[in-house]
Amino acid sequence: MRVLVTGASGNVGRFVVKELQQLGEEVVVAGTNKQKLIGIFGSDVEAVTLDFTSPDTFKEAIKNIDRVFLMRPPHLGKVKDMYPFIDHLSEQSLQLVVFLSLMGVSRNPFPPHYRIEKYIEQKCLPYTHVRPGFFMQNISGVHAEEIKQQNKVFVPAGNSETSFIDARDIGLTIAKMLHQPEKHHDKAYTLTGKEALTYNQVADILSDVTGKDIVYDKPSMLAYRKYYIEERQLDPTYVTVTMMLYLMTRLGTAKPVTADFSEITGKEPTSFKQFALDHVAAFK
Ligand SMILES: NC(=O)c1ccc[n+]([C@@H]2O[C@H](COP(=O)([O-])OP(=O)(O)OC[C@H]3O[C@@H](n4cnc5c(N)ncnc54)[C@H](OP(=O)(O)O)[C@@H]3O)[C@@H](O)[C@H]2O)c1
To answer: Organism's domain of life (predicted)?
Structure first.
């Protein structure tokens, strides 16, 4: 049987696909934009259209599938947008649904991931909740523009620390779980990198790797909001959600370091320095 990877074009999904293929699994990649998926994975991998907000796409996506990687697209504002697909999954005979959740949700009911985890459990699906910390790819993705153009890291996290994890490591862990579903039934794991760093340390590593003088700007929440909405023209709802996450970060919630990644994969997590070296072009 085959594994369905939702959000296959995303930061994590693309590495789930790659690692599952390395393990010899047959993968079906899903997203709202089939042409984008074919562009990324080629025509040898089966691509299906799946839109969580369009139930008429569900049946085809789940055909001959017995395991699922499930993620929540960040822009889907309402938690309930995810419920119809989860309902559909609960009517299938599945071995495992691995849900991409968020670090700390067991103690924090506010992020949507908390309610999605609970909904999956209520539906009696065989689940694994994967709760990662902040992705290193946030730095090479949404925050790269200021690093590249203005030599500054522009994140409202104060002096707090973050145990960043590489999305490549998350993808590897999730593929291992889907490959051996019986080992991970009804469990939750928190995935982090090997160390917690301040954004000053992030800026120092980026300076070292790029040869530029990159500093941490430490903006206030309001300055961050104004800049990201007015200058970068990002969706205000998305900016508000990230402000909430950086507020939690300031309170210390993003700094714990766990051993779950190493216990599952037998490997050391990727260091931020290695990540920066591998993605140096994003910062220059
Ligand atoms: N960034 C972090 O630091 C962090 C940390 C912990 C947890 N998380 C969680 O990780 C998740 C995001 O994962 P990611 O970064 O891998 O994703 P991403 O890069 O933001 O990609 C979003 C994916 O969702 C798909 N998608 C968009 N709308 C869809 C719809 N209506 N129906 C089905 N698929 C849809 C997109 O595919 P198409 O373009 O083909 O539609 C794309 O593959 C979020 O839930 C976030 O809260 C993030």
So the answer is: Bacteria
